[in-house]
């Protein structure tokens, strides 16, 4: 018989007791000289220390904007194949009227919308057409004369300045800026894409800071010849993705960001 089989049950209990007591002694000896960290270090975002507990931000604290949830959408593409996607529809409390918003271009008669955001609509109600040819539209197309200045504009509840992530070819000539936004007590990044530009303003490069009012480029018809307009698109970066480490062409990929109705985040016109 193997010698271990002869160990009595009482001896086994003693061994187990020693095994379970050991970590307790180790914890006590390690913890003794270390000053306790302040509770704030342990409170997750969106909560505050209160005595020895973490509590939600009280009403009236700066939680930022509402956290617009993503929804499922889908449409048949130009080849008739079904495409399913995530998208963030306009929230009911946000105005539907595009004229209520501050757009990054100044047009004397206000914005003239050629084509709005429609990825939240049923397939058959989404955009189709020869000149604005894609099925569905994840942005807003604004009519403006060629050469109209396009400026960086902050989003609602933005923290700090924006950053240029792309200044080059994507949707024609395109600028993409990254904006850190606080919503529901936590921050995330949103991307603002302005496309079909006549050109990128001199000196605007990926990595630059984009302060409110900075000139980004001019309205044009690159990659939409003969149809001078600004395509403006907002995308929310997915949790866990650092868009600064993503190639420019992948910033609009569904793994990187979720297309969002711009009316959720653009500031209202004064
Ligand atoms: Zn467009």
Percentage of β-strand residues: 25-35%
The residue ranges in which pLDDT falls below 50 over 5 or more consecutive positions are: 1-36
Tell me the CATH topology of the largest domain.
Answer: Glucose Permease (Domain IIA)
* Category from helices, strands and their pairing: mainly beta
Distance between the termini: 90 Å
Query: What is bound: which ligands?
Result: zinc ion
Number of helices: 1
Q: What order do the helices and strands follow?
A: HEEEEEEEEEEEEEE
CATH architecture of the largest domain: Distorted Sandwich
What overall geometry do the principal axes of the alpha carbons give? globular
The H-level CATH homologous superfamily of the largest domain, spelled out, is: Glucose Permease (Domain IIA)
Tell me about this structure.
The chain has 270 residues and is mainly beta. It has 2 domains: 3-56, no CATH class; 71-264, Glucose Permease (Domain IIA), CATH 2.70.70. Helices cover 9% and strands 33% of the residues. The chain contains 1 helix and 14 strands, in the order αββββββββββββββ. It has one helix at residues 9-31; strands spanning 47-50, 53-56, 71-76, 82-88, 112-115, 140-143, 149-151, 162-170, 172-183, 186-200, 209-210, 215-219, 229-237, 257-260. Strands 3, 4, 5, 6, 7, 8, 9, 10, 11, 12, 13 and 14 form a 12-stranded mixed sheet that branches. Strands 1-2 form a two-stranded antiparallel sheet. The radius of gyration is 27 Å and the shape is globular. The N and C termini lie far apart (90 Å). Zinc ion is lined by residues 115, 137, 139, 141, 231.
């Amino acid at each position: 018989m193997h010698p271990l089989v002869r160990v009595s049950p009482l001896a086994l209990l003693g061994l187990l007791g020693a095994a379970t007591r050991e970590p307790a002694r180790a914890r006590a000896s390690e913890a003794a000289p270390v000053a306790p960290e302040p509770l704030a270090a342990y409170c997750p975002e969106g909560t505050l220390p209160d005595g020895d507990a973490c509590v939600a931000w009280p009403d009236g604290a700066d939680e930022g904007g509402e956290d617009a949830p993503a929804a499922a959408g889908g449409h048949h593409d130009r080849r008739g194949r079904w495409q399913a996607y995530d998208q963030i529809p306009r929230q009911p409390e946000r105005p539907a009227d595009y004229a209520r918003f501050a757009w990054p271009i100044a047009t004397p008669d206000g914005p003239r919308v050629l084509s709005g955001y429609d990825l939240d609509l049923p397939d058959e109600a989404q955009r189709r057409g020869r000149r604005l040819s894609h099925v569905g539209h994840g942005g807003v197309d604004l009519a403006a004369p060629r050469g109209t200045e396009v400026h960086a504009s902050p989003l609602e509840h933005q923290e700090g300045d924006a950053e240029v992530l792309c200044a080059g070819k994507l949707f024609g000539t395109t600028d993409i800026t990254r904006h850190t936004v606080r919503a529901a007590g936590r921050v995330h990044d949103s991307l603002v894409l302005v496309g079909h530009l006549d050109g990128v303003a001199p000196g605007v490069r990926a990595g630059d800071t984009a302060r409110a009012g900075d000139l980004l480029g001019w309205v044009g018809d690159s990659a939409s010849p003969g149809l001078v307009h600004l395509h403006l698109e907002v995308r929310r970066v997915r949790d866990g993705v650092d868009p600064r480490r993503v190639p420019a062409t992948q910033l609009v990929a569904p793994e990187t960001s979720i297309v969002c109705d711009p009316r959720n985040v653009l500031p209202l016109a004064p």
